[in-house]
Design goal:
Layout: E1 5-9, H1 16-30, E2 37-41, H2 44-54, E3 59-63, H3 80-86, E4 90-93, H4 96-101, H5 106-118, E5 122-127, H6 131-135, H7 139-150, E6 163-166, H8 180-198, E7 206-210, H9 218-222, E8 229-232, H10 239-246
Parallel strand pairs: 1-2, 1-8, 2-3, 3-4, 4-5, 5-6, 6-7, 7-8
The structure holds 2-phosphoglycolic acid (PGA).
Residues 9, 167, 172-173, 210-213, 231-235 line the site of 2-phosphoglycolic acid (PGA).
């Protein structure tokens, strides 16, 4: 059985003070919620403060990116070792915004994944096609390349540490969600790719959906066989809406 996993990606939102307010409100709203793993990914500057609030709670800490070296002359970068020490359990890798604006490629995703795993962080590896690619019927080819090249250094015994987030780029921040069936088709395809590479361990890998997830659409997405959770952007910036998404079984 795969434990459902809902993570909030705060992107470049929230000062330290605002982050503490948000996570404190969330913590009381989801206290006592079981059967679903919860994580938040604040910006780097708020990680330490949020770590203090979530300590001992049912909310895990995630970072939004990490570099692949553990230390060195890499001005502006943050290493997985630093994130692990500050209390992060997860790190988002290869988000489409990193691919689109910051030159992230499948090759750099592979390096980050390897480094994160080596430092005991669980990567949330993002994949997804653009609108142009979907319209040109390239969705499966794009996803296949992203998975095969990105996961290239991930050994079979490490794959269950990994979370995959399927985020169609055309659904991110646009208010357009993939239909549950559309998303599940790609999730099933991703699990097949994982089966080919990793055999039955693929059954344990959680595959999140991301792209305009809201309290109103989460229950239908979670009802699909291969959707094991969500990576939530905009709707994770308010405690109330994120808490409703986390408790998706009440939203039916
Ligand atoms: P969104 O973002 O929920 O605002 O569409 C999702 C994401 O980018 O992870």
């Amino acid at each position: 059985m795969r434990m459902p996993f809902i993570a909030g990606n705060w992107k470049m939102h929230k000062t330290r003070q605002e982050a503490v307010e948000l996570v404190s409100a969330l913590k009381s709203l989801v206290a006592g919620v079981t059967g679903v793993e919860i994580a938040v990914a604040p910006p780097f500057t708020a990680l330490h403060a949020v770590a203090e609030v979530v300590e001992g709670s049912n909310i895990a800490l995630a970072a939004q990116n990490c570099f692949w070296e553990s230390e060195g002359a890499y001005t502006g970068e943050v290493s997985p070792r630093m994130l692990q020490e500050i209390g992060c359990r997860y790190v988002i890798i290869g988000h489409s915004e990193r691919r689109q604006y910051f030159g992230e490629t499948n090759a750099t995703v592979a390096k980050r994944l390897q480094a994160a795993l080596a430092h005991g962080l669980r990567p949330i590896c993002c994949v997804g096609e653009t609108l142009e690619e979907r319209e040109a019927n390239q969705t499966f080819a794009v996803i296949e390349t992203q998975i095969n090249e990105g996961l290239q250094p991930v050994a079979p015994q490490q794959v269950t540490e990994l979370v995959i987030a399927y985020e169609p780029v055309w659904a991110i921040g646009t208010g357009k969600t993939a239909t549950p069936a559309q998303a599940n088709e790609v999730h099933g395809f991703i699990r097949d790719l994982l089966r080919k590479r990793y055999g039955e361990r693929a059954e344990e890998v959680r595959i999140q959906y991301g792209g305009s997830v809201k309290p109103e659409n989460i229950a239908a997405l979670m009802a699909e066989s291969d959707i094991d959770g969500a990576l939530v952007g905009g709707a994770s910036l308010q405690a109330d809406s994120f808490a409703r998404i986390v408790q998706y079984d009440k939203e039916r």
